[in-house]
Amino acid sequence: MKVFENHSLLGYNTFKMEVVCRQFIDLESPDELKDLAAQGGLTPPYYVLGGGSNVLFTRDYEGCILHPVFQGVEIVEEDAQSVTLRVAAGTEWEDLINYCLEHHLYGLENLTGIPGLVGSAPVQNIGAYGVEVKDCILAVEGYHLPTATPFRYEAADCRFGYRTSLFKTELKGRCFITYVWFKLGKEPHFTLTYKALTDEMARQQLEPSLENVVRCVRSVRDSKLPDITEIGCAGSFFQNPVVPAVQAASLKSQIPDLVSYPAGEGVKLAAGQLIDKAGWKGYREGDAGIYPKQALVVVNYGHARPEEIKQLYEKVISDVNNKFHITLQPEVNIL
C-alpha cells in the first residue's frame, strides 16, 4: 500500500483535469483494503478510481482516492467450448483484450479500445458495437465499504442495464471491486450487427476472425474518437436516450433522418445525432469543445478548467432539451 497526501490527479484522469485530492492510496492487493478498514482508514468521503477514463473532476477532491493496482488473469475452469477467467480489478482492459487474442477466446473483441481497468467494466456495463460486457460476466467480487465486508454477486444479481449496474445505482460509492469473472468461448462466434463495423470489414475486404474484428473495431474507434494521449476526454460523454415510441415518432417529423433502435418498450435515440442537429458538433470555446468527428464526445484541447467543461456540457443539455424536449444524461461520473 502506498499513501500520498495532496496528490495530483492530472495523470489519473483522461480528461486531463488539473485537480488534486486530499489523499491517494495505491492498493497493491485486495487484502490491503481490509487492513485499511481495520485501521479506521476508510472514513468518507472516498472514491474508487480505476483508469480515470469515465470521470470528470469538476473541482479538487476533498477526500481519499482508492486506486487498485493489483493485476492478473487466472484460468478458473476450462472445457472444450469455454474458459472461465478471474481477472484482477487493476488489470488494464486492453491487456485483457490482448490476452483473449493471444489465447483465441471469443466474446470481448468488440470492446477493444475502451480505456480503463477491468474493475470498472461491470460498474458501467461498458458496451460498444453491439456488445455489452454483461454478456460475458459470470460474477463480480469485492468488498462493501467502509466495512470491507466481502461480497460476490452473480451476473443475474448485478442488475445490468444500458450503461448501468447495481454498482452504479444501489451500491454507488459503497463497494470496491476486486475481481471480475468472465466466461468466454473457445469456438469462433461474432457479433456483427453494427453497421459501421460491418462496413469497415467490407472496406478492408476482411473475413470474420478474432484478429480481423479487433482490427476493424480499432479502426472505427480511431476514426471517430480522439486519441486520449493527445486530447483530454472521457469517450462518449452522454448516454443515448430511450424515449417512448410516440415521442420518437413525433421527433421524426422534426428530424426526418432520425437514428433510432428498439429498446424494450421504448426507442433508443442517438445522442450524438441530437447534439449534432442542435448545432454543437465541432463547437469550441477556449480549450473546451465538442469533438468534430463525434458529437457525443466533450473534449479538453489543452488547458480547459473543470468549470469550463462543466459549463459546456450543461449548455449542450439545456439546448438539446429546448429544441427536442429530451434531457440528455451524462454517461461519465461527475465529481
How does this structure look, described?
- It is a single chain.
- With 335 residues, the chain is α+β, with helices and mostly antiparallel strands.
- The chain folds into 3 domains: 2-68, Uridine Diphospho-n-acetylenolpyruvylglucosamine Reductase, domain 2, CATH 3.30.43; 73-185, Uridine Diphospho-n-acetylenolpyruvylglucosamine Reductase, domain 3 (2-Layer Sandwich); 232-334, UDP-N-acetylenolpyruvoylglucosamine reductase, C-terminal domain (Uridine Diphospho-n-acetylenolpyruvylglucosamine Reductase, domain 1, Alpha-Beta Complex).
- Helices cover 25% and strands 28% of the residues.
- It is built from 8 helices and 20 strands.
- The strands form 6 sheets. Strands 6-7-12-10-11 form a 5-stranded antiparallel beta sheet, with no helix packed on it. It has a 4-stranded mixed beta sheet with strand order 1-2-5-3, with no helix packed on it.
- Helix 4 packs across helix 5 (210-224).
- The mean pLDDT is 92.
Write the layout of secondary structure elements.
Layout: E1 2-8, E2 20-27, H1 31-38, E3 46-48, E4 55-56, E5 61-68, E6 73-78, E7 82-88, H2 93-103, H3 121-124, E8 127-128, E9 131-132, E10 137-144, E11 149-154, E12 175-185, H4 195-203, H5 210-224, E13 232-233, E14 242-244, H6 245-254, E15 260-263, E16 266-269, H7 271-277, E17 284-285, E18 288-290, E19 298-300, H8 306-324, E20 333-334
Parallel strand pairs: 2-5, 3-5, 4-20
Antiparallel strand pairs: 1-2, 6-7, 7-12, 8-9, 10-11, 10-12, 13-19, 14-16, 15-16, 17-18, 18-19
